[in-house]
């Protein structure tokens, strides 16, 4: 999904409520260069569904909210991004191996690529 989005000329951000730095995992997989911005709740002091974290993410990407698509598995937490004008695409809240194309399918269904 990251490569397809990059090939389509899209900026890519990772927004997570995680409590530790996930950048090393992306680097280990060789995909860190595909991400333009990481916004991690423990670093910015806000967590989804707090609108401040979505504002931080759109600012980190250098995009207005209406040019950002939030993809996530929670209509409540991730879908809160709609309140500031972001688009939202929901994936099934399943383990990643149970939805290997989930992110790509969601982005395509939203018309982003």
Write a brief caption for the model.
With 113 residues, the protein is α/β, with parallel strands linked by helices. It has helices at 2-7, 23-28, 41-44, 51-61, 102-109, and strands spanning 13-16, 37-40, 69-72, 87-90. The strands form two sheets. The protein has a two-stranded parallel sheet. Strands 3-4 form a two-stranded parallel sheet.
Offer a few descriptive terms.
single chain, 5 helices, alpha/beta, 113 residues, two-stranded parallel ribbon
Helix/strand/pairing category: alpha/beta
User: Average pLDDT, to the nearest integer?
Assistant: 93
Give the N-terminus to C-terminus distance in angstroms: 10 Å
Low-confidence regions: none
**Approximately what portion of the residues adopt beta-strand conformation?**
5-15%
Please tell me what the overall shape is.
Answer: globular
Helix content: 25-40%
| Sheet with most strands | 2 strands, parallel
Number of β-strand runs: 4
With strands numbered from the N-terminus, the spatial order across the biggest sheet is 1-2
Count the DSSP helices: 5
**N-to-C order of helices and strands:** HEHEHHEEH
What gyration radius follows from the Cα positions, in whole Å? 13 Å
Secondary structure: elements and pairs:
Blueprint: H1 2-7, E1 13-16, H2 23-28, E2 37-40, H3 41-44, H4 51-61, E3 69-72, E4 87-90, H5 102-109
Parallel strand pairs: 1-2, 3-4
Could you walk me through the main structural features you see in this protein, from its secondary elements to its overall organization?
The protein has 113 residues and is α/β, with parallel strands linked by helices. It has five helices and four strands. Strands 1-2 form a two-stranded parallel ribbon. Strands 3-4 form a two-stranded parallel sheet. Strand 1, helix 2 and strand 2 form a beta-alpha-beta unit. The longest helix is centred in the middle third of the chain and has 11 residues. 19% of the residues are buried. The mean pLDDT is 93.
């Amino acid at each position: 999904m990251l490569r397809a989005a990059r090939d389509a000329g899209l900026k890519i951000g990772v927004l997570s409520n995680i409590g530790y730095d996930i950048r090393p995992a992306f680097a280990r997989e060789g995909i860190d260069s595909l991400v333009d911005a990481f916004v991690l709740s423990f670093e910015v002091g806000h967590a989804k569904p707090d609108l401040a974290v979505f504002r931080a993410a759109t600012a980190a990407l250098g995009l207005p909210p209406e040019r950002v698509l939030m993809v996530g598995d929670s209509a409540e937490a991730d879908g809160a991004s709609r309140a500031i004008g972001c688009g939202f695409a929901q994936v099934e809240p399943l383990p990643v191996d149970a939805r290997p194309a989930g992110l790509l399918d969601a982005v395509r269904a939203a018309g982003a690529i």
